[in-house]
Amino acid sequence: MATNAKTRKAARYAVPVAVAGVAAATVAMVPAFANSGGPDLPKMTAQQLIEKVAASDVQQLSGSAKVSTDLGLPTLASGLLGGGGGVAGGSANPEDKLAQLANGTHTVRVAADGPDRQKLTFVDGKDEYSLIRNGADVWGYDTKANEVWHEKDTEGAAQGKDHKKTADRLGGASPQQLAQDILKAAGPTTDVSVGDTAQVAGRDAYQLVLKPKHGGSTVNSVKIAVDAKNGVPLRVQLLATEGGKPIVDAGFTKVDFAKPSADTFAFTAPKGAKVTEGAAEAGKGGAGHGKEFKGLESFPGLDALTGGAGGKGGKGDMKVLGEGWSTIARIDTGAGKGLKDIENDKNAPKEAKQFLDSLGGKVTGTFGEGRVFKTRLVNALITDDGKVYVGAVTKDALVQAADANK
User: Fold this and answer.
1) Which residues of 67-77 are buried (b: 16+ CB within 10 A; e: fewer)?
2) Distances from the Cα of 388 to the Cαs of 172, 249, 309, 370, 393, in angstroms?
3) Which of 9, 205, 227, 404 is an S-S bond match for 232, by CB 3.0 to 4.6 Å?
4) Which CATH superfamily includes the segment(s) 5-282?
5) From the CA atom positions of the chain, what is the Rg in Å?
6) Which residues face 251 on adjacent strands?
7) pTM
């Protein structure tokens, strides 16, 4: 893989890299300054702080992070996402493990040495799951199941290609990648300011605060703690409009910016371990590939309930309503049955009825009647005529959208 500075800064891995596409012209900057709520640091504007993150080119680090997610999922959905457990499960497939970050609290050990070497280890008591990239080799190892997942991309490495899938797997759980994704998504519907200073993992930090300009979002704000010295995002907190503890709280508890030892990224499949070659399974739809968490649409029963939006038997017509934090997707599933029909149909799939039971209360409007699937972040309104309105917005915002677009 190419090692010039430009390539390194463009790679999307679990190391702090430039935040591409973030410019003052696309973000509504509020000229607020850090106050004395934490360490006494020089004053800095929001624009200066974003530029500091963008300029950070730290390529090496190691440490521990804690990721807590509280989506307020119904029992059915929570069970499907692995509950509050850590690395439970019998597969070494990275998608299976990373999906578990959608619920509960997890401890992750992190190490990075440039774009070609990263390691994430999910710890659950004595059991561990490690995801390692070392050159062209990507390994997943589940100690509890003694299973190994392996993928090798010698062609991509030889041509200097960006391994996007691997980058997503390795970077998605890190505070740095979360911060990058959030900053890239910030636009004219966002107010950006600098809040109280803080200490994270023993390091002085500024806090960048992003807030929706308009009402209706389930998100009150996003706080990104940025290392005062090197611009590395140390913690990301997603706060709910309804209050309570953060929806997502991902941050380092310990961090060291020294170069990790080379053996940190070395891996050999243990004797007797079951090894699955990811690339070999891709062509036949095996366990190594093709699985990804898709949120609401992954829940059993929703497909039966809506007639298979976007798939066989459904129209899958989608329209995007609104913008920014208040964006709502309207999906016309083309379902032949309404919710009442399914509720009263003795022959309806049991998964559909279980899903109905997991939903919140019924709602009505000029659009008709429907039910709301409610979490602390994403809500979905499923109307009686088979339309779905979904977004990180409140129940009232979904009803208003349904009334205006029936």
Assistant:
1) bbbbbbbbebb
2) 28, 29, 9, 9, 14
3) 227
4) Lipoprotein localisation LolA/LolB/LppX (2.50.20.10)
5) 22
6) 66, 235
7) 0.74
